From TrEMBL:
Gene3D superfamilies: Dynein light chain 2a, cytoplasmic
One Pfam family matching this protein: Robl_LC7
Domain spans labelled Roadblock/LAMTOR2: 22-110
Family: Belongs to the GAMAD family.
SUPFAM superfamilies: Roadblock/LC7 domain
Protein name (database record): Dynein light chain roadblock-type 2
Length: 118
């Protein structure tokens, strides 16, 4: 693909490599016991890939984004040179973990309720 095609917004090789990397990460994480969903968002908060339905994807992505903004504000009040890279929120039923990267946010929703197998 030439520079001319790239300037017109055509797909770049880097884009394909990123999507492949994201898919491998989702498959690996989703296979863990208790994982209910994995969401990967771009830096603007739009879901790139998800294993959840649209309603839950939007709800968790917006919620984690809001909590991350609050956490970042708190961190920067203490040390303006520091940055928030990981956030973990636990409830009685669920645990949400998010890795915050300048390019993407990876969110994992995991069940805290242990199921017994009979």
């Amino acid at each position: 693909m030439g520079e001319r095609e790239r300037d017109k917004g055509g797909p770049r090789n880097d884009d394909y490599m990123f999507v492949e990397k994201v898919e491998k990460m989702i498959d690996r994480i989703a296979g863990h016991k208790g994982v209910e969903g994995v969401i990967v968002c771009d830096k603007d908060g739009a879901a790139i890939q998800t294993t959840m339905d649209n309603t839950n994807t939007v709800m968790y992505a917006e919620g984690v984004r809001n909590m991350a903004n609050i956490g970042l504000s708190m961190i920067r009040d203490v040390d303006p040179t520091n940055d928030l890279t990981f956030i973990r929120i636990g409830t009685k039923k669920l645990e949400m973990m998010a890795h915050l990267n300048p390019e993407y946010v990876a969110i994992v929703v995991q069940s805290r309720i242990k199921t017994s197998k009979n």
